Amino acid sequence: MNRKRLQSLGLLLAVTLTSLALAQQKGTVAIGSKLDSEGQLLGQMMRLTLEHAGFTVKAQIPTGNTFVTRKALIEGQIDIYPEYTGSAINNFFKGQKIPDGAPSRAAQSFAIVKTLDLKLNNISWLERAPANNTFAVAIPKTLAVREGLKSLVNLAAYVNKGGVLKIVGSQEFFERSDAFPSFEKAYGFKLKADQKVVIAGATTSQTEQAAASNTDGANAAMAYGTDGAIAALGLVVMTDPKGAQPVYQPAPTVRGEVLKKYPEIAGLLNPIFKGLTLPVLQNLNRQIDLEGKAPQEVARTYLASKGFLK
Amino acid sequence: MILTNPNRIAILGCLLAISSLVLLPFLELKANRLVAGTGKGLLELGAAGWWLLGLLVLVGLSAFLKPRFRAPVLAILGNLVFIASVILIGAAASSLLGSSTLARVSIAPAAWLILVSSSFLIFAALNDLENIWLKRLTLSVGILVFLAILLTGGLSSLSVIREYQTRLDTFWLEVGRHLGLAFLALLTSSLFGLPLGFWAARSKGFEGLILGFSSLLQTIPSLALLALLITPFSALVRAFPVLESFGIRGIGFAPAITALTVYGLLPIARGVLNGLKAVPETALEAGRGMGMTPNQLFSGVELPLALGLILNGIRTSAVQLVGLSTLSSLIGAGGLGVFIFGGLGSAANDLVLLGAIPVLVLAVLTDAGFRTLEQASIPKGCR
Questions:
Q1: Residue B134: burial class (beta carbons within 10 Å; 0-12, 13-18, 19+)
Q2: CA dihedral B194, B200, B206, B212 (to 10 degrees)
């Protein structure tokens, strides 16, 4: 009896020690993000989740722009950061053959970046968020109501019958063939040069602000689908029924070696990204951009409310 | 008692303050952090504005007094204008804000200009004052009262303070990182810049080469340099993994310090070169005549005479590096640039200010600190 008890105690001790050792094996993971607030929000969510699961996290949030952050991942300076399917298709796979129309279909573009990145760079894409942070056109609500504009079909008709429109956007937005030009092509309208206000390197917060306050007579703005400030600035987004835009869905990109060593990372992050729908992300972005809360606070409150952090 | 030769700086400050008070908005009320706001003139904000206006007229009149009388009057009134405007900014901001949680109040042009012109008044008083202790008192009263108001929450309704409060846990960390980056880079710049400058002064051939090279380095766009450094540093760490335990990685501190060092080189090397070249030939002749060896000549004659310009170069480099360290945030090394670029990206001007104001303060303090150091370290005979 006594011996048995001793045996079971020994077993318990052994189990405890092994699990302790296993817990310590969790090791270190470096997390980065791009400079924008959504990037920082997603980066902070990953950091909090992995820390909660027992990893030691080296956080470098924000890391830099797309170029710097991606380079840091490729060079192994960071292990994980959130990237968008659309950005990856546009920037990372220059020499590769991408089927026509694929970028504007969510599932197909995700499958393409997932396969290509794993094959070419040994980088894994985990579960994507079901929210599309793509380029869009936002106009003041007053204009939309007055002219009955809901979609880009309506907007094109309005422009073609001579309606006044002046749109603010970044250089990239007007020059990249899959950005504004693809709207013009798909919906059959063409803006004159003096109808475009080009601000090099502008962010959507800046362009939306300009359109909302009618700067330089602007009454339309380059916007992103998940921007949090659109409604608060009194703007509405024109829907894109023809799917002229590539899809930008955010997902964690992980270095293959790290995922192989810690496969549980996928199980930890996937349920979180699955829950990040368009309204959820818009609401979280709104708290950062409009209410001025810090990304890590917004991330922490959200994860706690969903039961991911205890 | 009335003089025909009034204090012109004081009058200029006064006119600037009065005209901006009457013509420009004092504070800006925004429905939320991102939208454009509506400007509010100080005179719309209640009776206090008229008191400030009256005070300014009084200051204008006192500029016509004889220097003996006007110096203390200007010193007191200048500080009063400064303190009164700070209190007004805080009070008006909190009354504008009311109980709204989303609304923000930002400092508008008139408030900035009144603060600037009050510093004109204080400097005008400093010109007229003779006693060094009175000068120091005049200069420090306003700053001390400002700090007291800031620390007791008198300005907490301002948007930039709101930004500070939401980033309380990272703000001082980033200030520390910023200073660390700037001063470590200054150290490495000096390590390379001082010998380079010395070398350039000793040989005509190297002078052009070294100055040309360090000028060339200055022309590389800083962002490009930062991005370019990632690859060699990553390769270095892969080849010698032990480096990683010293905190050297492809992004972050190491490449940032390297880039900053490159930009800090030129002023330091040039300072040494100019300092050594400015040593008069006659002083060297005299030294040689006394039988000094080349080493004695260097440490006893050249170095003391050149020290002023050398320290001047180091100071220039230090102030530049405090500013440039802002860019380190673009390569994951943190610093106050985190707030500046974050604010620019989301078009939140007050977040930009939260980064920019401390950079400005740090630069001014660095400059003042090095000036004091220069004063103290140059031998009496060489000043």
A1: middle
A2: 70
CB-nearest to B36 from A76, A209, A294 is: A209
- Tell me the C-alpha distance between B102 and B17, whole Å: 31
B157-196 per-position pLDDT tens digit? 999 999 998 888 889 999 999 999 999 999 999 999 999 9
The CA-CA-CA angle for residues B55, B59, B62, to 5°, reads 135
Contact A289 B348 (CB under 8 A): yes
What span, in angstroms and rounded, lies between the C-alpha atoms of A55 and A49? 9
B34 at interface of A, judged by CB pairs closer than 8 A: yes
Q: Pick from A87, A224, A127, A76: which is nearest to B346 by CA? A: A224
- pLDDT grade, residue A3 (50/70/90)? low
Pick left, alpha or beta for residue B355 (phi over 0 → left; psi -120 to 50 → alpha; otherwise beta).
Answer: alpha
Cα separation of B115 and A56, whole Å? 47
Q: Is B187 left (phi over 0), alpha (psi -120 to 50) or beta?
A: alpha
Contact B106, B76 (CB under 8 A): no
3-state SS track over B184-196: HHHHHHHHHHHHH
Place of tokens 């490009």: B224
Least Cα distance to A35 among B248, B230, B327 occurs for: B327
B331 touches chain A (CB under 8 A): yes
User: Closest by alpha carbon to B62, among B50, B74, B72?
Assistant: B74
Please enumerate in sequence order all residues whose Cβ is within 8 A of that of B340, keeping only pairs 6 or more positions apart, or say none. B326, B329, B352, B355, B356, B359
Cis peptide leading into A99, omega within 30 of 0? no
3-class secondary-structure state, position B92? helix
Taking the CA of residue B237 and the nearest CA in chain A, the distance in Å comes to 10
Query: Nearest CA of chain B to the CA of A87: how many Å?
Result: 18
> For A223-259, how does the pLDDT look when each residue is reduced to its tens digit (9 = 90+)?
988 888 888 888 999 988 888 888 899 999 999 999 9
Mutate to test the interface with A, among B167, B169, B251, B349 (most CBs of A within 10 A): B251
Largest CA-CA distance found in chain B, in angstroms, rounded: 81
Give bridge partners of residue A124 from the DSSP assignment: A254
* DSSP track, A96-122: S---TTGGGSHHHHHHHHHHHHHHHH-
Tell me the C-alpha distance between B154 and B295, whole Å. 59
Residue of A nearest to B36 (CA): A213
Taking alpha carbons only, the member of B361, B360, B355 closest to residue B171 is B355
Partner-chain residue, chosen from B36, B331, B342, that has the shortest CB–CB distance to A213: B36
Tokens 């040689």 -> residue? B288
Task: Confirm whether the ipTM is greater than 0.85.
Answer: no
Q: How confident is the model at residue A5 (pLDDT cuts 50, 70, 90)?
A: low
- Comparing CB atoms, the residue among B162, B230, B346 nearest residue A72 is B230
Could you tell me which residues come within 8 angstroms of residue B125 by beta carbon, excluding any fewer than 6 positions away? B10, B71, B72, B74, B75, B78, B138
Cβ burial, residue A111 (10 Å; 0-12/13-18/19+): middle
Query: How high is the pLDDT of residue A1?
Result: 45
